[in-house]
């Protein structure tokens, strides 16, 4: 009788162990799938950003000779990002995870002193720790 009870407890432990292994494999597969989906999503978002930045630089350099990008098929969506790629910027430890401003970007001053509000300038320095940036022609 002892042997039978011992064997029964061994079988139960083995079954529990198999279930744990199966659950961990399923969780691992789920994490891999989510990681791959996030990777594809970020890649698509990056392509939109890169093309927008290239168009922005080209428009900036060409000035009044820049091509009209807001006509034709792009008239309704020019300057926007597809809804599926829009996400909020996350804060980590009180700091912005992805600030989205780099040196050389053209920016419009929104919330500062009344005399500077609405001015447009080029970012010359980004200070992520202070969550601020210097704009040519505005920060003297």
Report a brief summary of the structure.
This protein is 44% helix and 14% strand. It is built from 1 helix and 5 strands; from the N terminus they run αβββββ.
Strand coverage percent: 5-15%
**Major sheet, described briefly?**
3 strands, antiparallel
- The SSE string, one letter per element, is HEEEEE
How would you describe the shape? elongated
> Could you estimate the helical fraction of the residues in percent?
40-55%
What are the segments in which pLDDT stays under 50 over at least 5 consecutive residues?
none
Provide the gyration radius in Å: 27 Å
What is the mean pLDDT? 79
**What's the total helix number?**
1
Cα separation of the termini: 90 Å
Strand order of the largest sheet: 3-4-5
Coarse structural class: alpha+beta
User: How many strand units?
Assistant: 5
What features would you describe in this structure?
With 140 residues, this protein is an alpha+beta fold. It is 44% helix and 14% strand. It contains one helix and five strands. The protein has a three-stranded antiparallel β-sheet with strand order 3-4-5, with no helix packed on it. A two-stranded antiparallel sheet has the order 1-2. It is elongated. It starts with a helix and ends in a 5-residue tail after the last strand. The model has no long low-confidence stretch (mean pLDDT 79).
